[in-house]
User: Fold this.
Amino acid sequence: MSQEIIEVMEPEQDDIIQSWCSISEAGNLKEGYDMERFTDSPRKDFQCPICLGVVRNPLECSQCGILLCKKCAFSCSKPQNPFFIMTSSVLKFNCPICRSRAAPREPSSILKKIINSSVVYCKNKLHGCPVSEALGEIKNHEKECKFKAIRCANHGFCDKQGNKIDFISVEFSKMGKGSYPTKSKLVCSDVCRKVVIMDHLLKTDQSEKAINEYRIVLEQLNKISSF
Assistant:
């Protein structure tokens, strides 16, 4: 009696599920840092071969060692089956240099520290900010940078935009009775300041004060329109 021989094939590397990046995560990723942001020219091997910026959220090809931004590595990947919807597809990395299909890996912590120690200018440099700090620390500064572009908090009536340093801060913690959370807003003018104060008073059940602020705003607007 002849025996049927069944050939068992080893799974190819291309068929192994790669979990280095999820579809949902990829939408929030960004390309590399602009080379012009660095105070000194970065090392060439820190430059992503796809976006040509310094690698952001870096990944390393496990075969040739090239560094890529995580977003750019995602762009080098493809679904397991092009007929599947993206949310159910498996990402398959395809290195743009050596064409390796092996999943990319995290670079060493030492390498990431070296990249993060590179000194960069604040992204608001063109608006007048003189600050430069290590790449790994500059975000903390940029969150509070006085030169970042903002919009007047009086969104309903004003679309003025400009640098944070040129706006007026409105503090709400000292207004009215009751335990309202401490917060502040930035506005472009005294008129807009009174409008956001009035809005705050209405939201915190202080109608009389709100009406008084409304009267003051109307008087100021009348004065402006009379010029």
In short: The mean pLDDT is 80. Residues 149-226 form one domain. The two ends are 109 Å apart (CA to CA). The chain is about 25% helix and 10% strand.
